[in-house]
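Ticket #4471: structure output looks truncated?

Reporter: J.K.
Steps to reproduce: submitted the chain below (198 residues) through the standard prediction queue, then opened the result file.
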Amino acid sequence: MFTGIIEETGRVVSFVAAADAWKLQVAARLVPGDLAPGDSVAVNGCCLTVTKFDAANLWFDVLEETRRLTNFAQLAPGAAVNLERSLRANSRMGGHFVSGHIDGLGRIEVLEPRGKDHYLRVKPEGDFARYLVYKGSIAIDGISLTVAAVHGDAFDVWLIPTTMTVTNLGEKKAGDYVNLEFDLLAKYVEKIAANRPT
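Returned output as attached by the reporter:
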């Protein structure tokens, strides 16, 4: 479980196919400092298991399905990735509950400065519009954000300068794909409501 509050932006060192899995190596400064083998780290919002680490690097095994269903297929050496260690029971709860299980991809339609802020519009791929709620929560590449407006199957968020500086959104542009995780509570409510006796 995560909060969507990004701890740091790492850099992809390599992402290559091996005999048993895709191997992802990420350079990082902060996150490796407090890990144990087998810990979970959200990488662009995707919950991955740390297979090994040192003071400046993290290594992960990535399933083919994960690569196919996320924006990992576009990862190349030097790419910025958002990193967050899993939530501890004694931590402050900023953001919102983020499971690290990506629902699908979204394509950035607009990302531009507007006044002192930045405006972002994303169009999800697939049938997820029912989870888009004005002032609801959404995780974009693992970042906890608030839906500012819904336009059919697309949605807007507003970004503060800090978000543009400390996450990978500062390097994104229109046409890029981002990982989306829709609000976990909304999905549970939908499931319960669908199974209620009439």
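Triage note (M.O.): checked the attachment and the full token line is present. The two ends are 34 Å apart (CA to CA).
Status: closed, working as intended.
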